[in-house]
């Protein structure tokens, strides 16, 4: 069952999510309760945490902009959008003056500020079950860690805001001495708190959150901790966190790859490989969930569907590189890789692919379109798309675990986990071949496996960065061949620039390399 968080949000969001403000914010809003008047019970404590989750489904986070900034800057998709922000994000030329840069920036701080408010409020509430208190605190720490992980990987040295902002002087935090290493250290601290407080699942907890599957778990926290270590090149440090998740027995690979991107709640809920996700619904309510304070009329749809769809906005197309990667191997039954039609919409009658959006193929038969996270294989209204967005899923953890094993000297075990992912796609058993590879050969193969399994999931760009390909002339040449947008890449463009609007409002804020 879908979990609906918005019904209690109206009471809990009592301060602006923006970090740049002025004295007008001190004006009392008579239509809202002040924080000191509201947080009195465990129901209100849970409402504070539920409000953080709401921040995940707005435009700046997983509704649209966070996936876009991963997909656009990788070599799997190209922008053909008339919206210049999308095109310039894809080719690394977006100027700091483009107002759309603020969408994700404010989205991340919406989550961060709501998490700060929840952490402070929960500590002050006496009427709450101890176990529930721990679970709520664990979720707030996890969600703050996730928001900072995304924020620093998009914008680099973002301000660390760890307390509720209560006056004009606190609304102008400085990042002038902040480094990404310090941000990563804070994320690690938050995740350590989350790991000690979160349950394995909510199936057997006692409290109002019982059975609410969309909440953060210890598996999600361990997975994100492993990823945090991996992004810093600490393979040995990441290894035990991934190992804990893989060996937990809690997660497995769903038999049908295409089911991972269904909006059918029954199919979504049956997926044993989902670890943490942003939850969307097929609600047709009148108020779109682009951002701001939610209302009872909010719909909770995923805007990736119309944005990526070839039948709608058609803002992105798959690169030929991605098409070729997904066609590289056929299944043991000599069929196309089942991940191809789940990822790319093409007219391939020899493969039995002759439908688009639930009807006979009506698009240009000579073009390829993005299928993943759209309704390309089923049809339906994209503006009520309820496909949940995978923030962390088991196949990604298996491949990250394999990467850590290989880079700590255990390529044979790494090959086992790679083949496990391939088995779900019914690909030939090449485990013994991979086990005999040297590290460079294995990493080349792993890069291919990650593309075919995880394409158009906002991850490839960050793989490219952390593997050092942007600083390797030979690899950069490959990226330029895969995607001409890399022809305009410059070394100072590893991050999106800070929004000029934020720099103008906050005198203590400095930009990153992309602002130079």
Characterise this structure.
It is built from 21 helices and 8 strands. It has helices at 35-38, 42-54, 59-63, 65-71, 84-90, 101-124, 130-155, 180-197, 218-231, 235-246, 265-269, 304-308, 320-327, 339-343, 394-407, 411-424, 431-435, 439-454, 460-466, 473-482, 500-505, and strands spanning 77-79, 274-278, 316-318, 344-345, 355-356, 359-360, 369-370, 389-393. The model is unreliable at 4-28 (pLDDT under 50). It is globular and about 65 Å long. By secondary structure, it is mainly alpha-helical. It is found in: Cell outer membrane. Residues 481-516 are annotated as: Disordered.
Write a compact overview of the structure shown.
Residues 481-516 are annotated as: Disordered. The chain has 516 residues and is mostly helical.
Amount of beta strand: under 5%
What letter string, H or E per element, gives the SSE order? HHHHEHHHHHHHEHEHHEEEEEHHHHHHH
Structural class by sheet pairing and helices: mainly alpha
Q: Sheet with the most strands?
A: 2 strands, antiparallel
Count of runs of 4 or more consecutive helical residues? 21
Summarize model confidence as the mean pLDDT: 93
**Rg computed from alpha carbons, rounded to a whole number of angstroms:** 22 Å
Helix content: 40-55%
Question: What's the total number of strands?
Answer: 8
The global form is globular
Uncertain segments are: 4-28
């Amino acid at each position: 069952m879908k979990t609906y968080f918005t019904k209690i949000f109206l009471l809990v969001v009592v301060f602006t999510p923006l970090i740049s403000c002025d004295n007008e914010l001190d004006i009392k809003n008579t239509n809202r309760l002040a924080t000191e008047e509201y947080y009195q019970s465990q129901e209100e404590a849970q409402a504070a945490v539920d409000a953080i989750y709401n921040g995940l489904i707005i435009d700046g986070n997983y509704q649209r902009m966070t996936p876009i900034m991963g997909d656009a800057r990788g070599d799997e998709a190209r922008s053909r959008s008339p919206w210049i922000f999308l095109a310039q994000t894809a080719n690394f030329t977006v100027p700091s003056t483009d107002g759309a840069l603020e969408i994700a920036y404010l989205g991340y701080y919406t989550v961060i500020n709501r998490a700060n408010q929840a952490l402070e409020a929960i500590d002050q509430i006496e009427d709450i079950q101890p176990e529930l208190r721990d679970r709520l605190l664990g979720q707030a720490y996890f969600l703050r860690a996730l928001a900072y992980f995304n924020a620093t990987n998009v914008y680099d040295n973002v301000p660390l805001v760890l307390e509720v902002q209560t006056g004009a002087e606190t609304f102008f935090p400085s990042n002038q001495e902040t480094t990404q290493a310090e941000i990563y250290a804070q994320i690690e601290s938050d995740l350590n708190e989350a790991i000690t407080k979160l349950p394995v699942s909510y199936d057997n907890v006692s409290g109002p959150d019982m059975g609410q599957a969309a909440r953060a778990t210890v598996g999600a926290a361990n997975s994100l901790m492993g990823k945090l270590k991996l992004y810093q090149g600490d393979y040995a440090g990441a290894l035990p966190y991934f190992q804990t998740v893989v060996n937990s027995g809690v997660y497995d690979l769903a038999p049908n790859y295409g089911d991972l991107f269904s909006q059918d709640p029954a199919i979504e809920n049956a997926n044993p490989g989902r670890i943490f996700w942003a939850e969307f619904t097929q609600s047709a309510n009148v108020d779109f969930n682009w951002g701001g304070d939610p209302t009872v009329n909010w719909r909770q749809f995923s805007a990736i569907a119309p944005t990526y769809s070839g039948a709608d906005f058609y803002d992105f197309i798959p690169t030929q590189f991605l098409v070729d990667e997904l066609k590289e191997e056929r299944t043991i039954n000599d069929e196309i890789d089942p991940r191809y039609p789940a990822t790319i919409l093409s007219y391939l009658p020899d493969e039995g692919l002759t439908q688009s959006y639930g009807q006979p193929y009506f698009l240009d038969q000579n073009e390829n379109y993005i299928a993943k996270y759209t309704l390309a294989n089923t049809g339906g209204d994209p503006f009520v798309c309820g496909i949940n967005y995978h923030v962390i899923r088991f196949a990604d953890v298996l491949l990250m675990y394999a990467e850590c094993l290989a880079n700590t000297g255990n390529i044979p075990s790494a090959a086992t986990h790679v083949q496990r992912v391939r088995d779900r796609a019914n690909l030939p058993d090449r485990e013994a071949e991979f086990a005999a590879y040297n590290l460079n050969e294995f990493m080349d193969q792993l890069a291919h496996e990650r593309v075919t399994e995880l394409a158009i999931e906002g991850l490839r760009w960050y793989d490219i960065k952390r593997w050092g390909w942007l600083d390797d002339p030979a690899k950069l040449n490959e990226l330029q061949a895969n995607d001409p947008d890399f022809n305009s890449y410059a070394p100072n463009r590893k991050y999106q620039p800070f929004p000029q609007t934020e720099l103008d409002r906050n005198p203590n804020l400095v930009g990153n390399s992309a602002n130079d």
